[in-house]
Structures are given as structure tokens and as C-alpha cells.
Amino acid sequence: ETGVTQTPRHLVMGMTNKKSLKCEQHLGHNAMYWYKQSAKKPLELMFVYNFKEQTENNSVPSRFSPECPNSSHLFLHLHTLQPEDSALYLCASSQESSYSSGRAGSDTQYFGPGTRLTVL
Amino acid sequence: GQQVMQIPQYQHVQEGEDFTTYCNSSTTLSNIQWYKQRPGGHPVFLIQLVKSGEVKKQKRLTFQFGEAKKNSSLHITATQTTDVGTYFCAGMWNTGRRALTFGSGTRLQVQP
């Protein structure tokens, strides 16, 4: 499946490093999401972007900074992370309903393969 | 916030046995979706249920949506080793919020 791609697939970083995760969707969707998956919380929604605008931030620490330059790309900028931030970071996209255009959505989410992040 | 409670957390079965996972919401859902995540993989969409009392089948998988649209189940008949993975339900309510809320998942292990 190549509808949603994520890079890098694996990342090891120190607590003082700055890195970015990239997600790209090739499905023509208008909504994109960042999830954190760890043993403690299987699928924790972090951010939601709809038509490039952030519509949801679930009390995520400021050391995680999302960026959505267009409907196809989503970034997660990381800085001064903690070891407990080690997890699988999943990106997803969906086609959400647009009330202004009358376009129907399906709400089905298509996930990328994830980035396995280890913070030392 | 609204949540979907999913049980059991973990299930270990012998190949050929049946398996069921359940999801519950305290309030009426607008729809519920099911996803499967293989070990080392990412969640993959299986199905969406929208109508009250809806039942859908995919080969050995049967999905149900309760009459009150507050609960749902996924039943696998005669499990195979290829069914191994974590099954997640994900719900949406009529609140205007468009993001799904995922259950905690049920991890299925199948012994050959």
C-alpha cells in the first residue's frame, strides 16, 4: 500500500536533538492526522488537520509541533523530547465531508506505515 | 470526552476456534468502524457500520451494530493464523467532531 507514506521509518534521537517526521498522502484526501501508539495507549490522537487548518490538538506538549503546508503533506517537528516520547508515530488521512462544497466524505482513515521513534 | 470501551484486551485461541471482540459507548454513535493491525504493521480499515442493527459479513468475519447504536461486535468464525493481530473499533458521534475515537484494541493470538 503506497497511499500514505511516512519518512523516516525509524529514528533514534537524543533529548537535545531536533528532527522532523514527514507524511505524504497520495489519495486526494482533505484531512490528515498524527497518532502516537505505545504500549500504554494503543492509538492516541495528537493532531487533526482539515483543509490545511488545525482543527484539533489533544493537549499535546509543545515539544511536538505539527505543520501542514498543503492537503497532501504533514510534518511533525520534534525538539527536546523525553524518553517517554519513544513510540510509533502514525500518520493517517481521510476524505471528510465539506459542507461548503457539498462533498460527501467517508471518515475512513488510511494509515501510513509509521515512524518508530526512540529517544535516548 | 466520549470514549469507546473495548473488551477483551487480549485473547489467545486455538486455530479453528471462534473469536469475538466487543465495543461499547455510553452514548449513541453515528457510525463505528473496525480496523486490523498486524504485528509490526499499521491499522488497516476493515468496515464501517452506520445503520441501527446492521450486520455485515466479510468471509469469516461478522460485524454487528447494536439496535441502539451504542455497541458493536466483531466475530471471527474458525480462526486461522492469518487472523493474528490487534483489532480496533473506532467510533464517531453526532457532535460535529469529525475525528474518530479508537478503542483500546483487542490483541488476538492464534495457536496453530
Describe this structure in words.
- The complex is a heterodimer of chains A (120) and B (112).
- Chain A has 120 residues and is an all-beta fold.
- Chain A is 0% helix and 53% strand.
- Chain A has strands at residues 4-7, 10-13, 18-25, 31-37, 44-50, 53-57, 64-70, 73-79, 87-94, 110-111, 115-119.
- In chain A, β7 and β8 form a beta hairpin.
- Chain A starts with a strand and ends with a strand.
- Residues 99-103 of chain A have low confidence and may be disordered.
- The mean pLDDT of chain B is 95.
- The relative contact order of chain B is 0.34.
- Chain B is globular, with a radius of gyration of 14 Å.
- With 112 residues, chain B is mainly beta.
- Chain B contains no helices and 11 strands.
- In chain B, the strands form 2 sheets. In chain B, strands 2, 4, 5, 9, 10 and 11 form a 6-stranded mixed sheet that branches. A 5-stranded antiparallel sheet of chain B has the order 1-3-8-7-6, with no helix packed on it.
- Chain B has strands spanning 5-7, 10-14, 19-24, 31-37, 44-49, 55-58, 61-65, 71-76, 85-92, 101-102, 106-111.
- The interface between A and B is medium-sized, with 24 and 21 residues.
Average pLDDT reading of chain B: 95
Roughly how many Å is the radius of gyration of chain A? Answer: 14 Å
Largest interface: which pair? A-B, 24 and 21 residues
Count of runs of 4 or more consecutive helical residues of chain A? 0
Task: Please report which band the strand proportion of chain A falls in: under 5%, 5-15%, 15-25%, 25-35%, 35-45% or over 45%.
Answer: over 45%
Q: CA-to-CA gap between the ends of chain A?
A: 31 Å
The helix-and-strand class of chain A reads mainly beta
By secondary-structure content and strand pairing, the structural class of chain B works out as mainly beta
Characteristic terms for this protein:
heterodimer; A: mainly beta; 4-stranded antiparallel sheet; B: mainly beta; 5-stranded antiparallel sheet
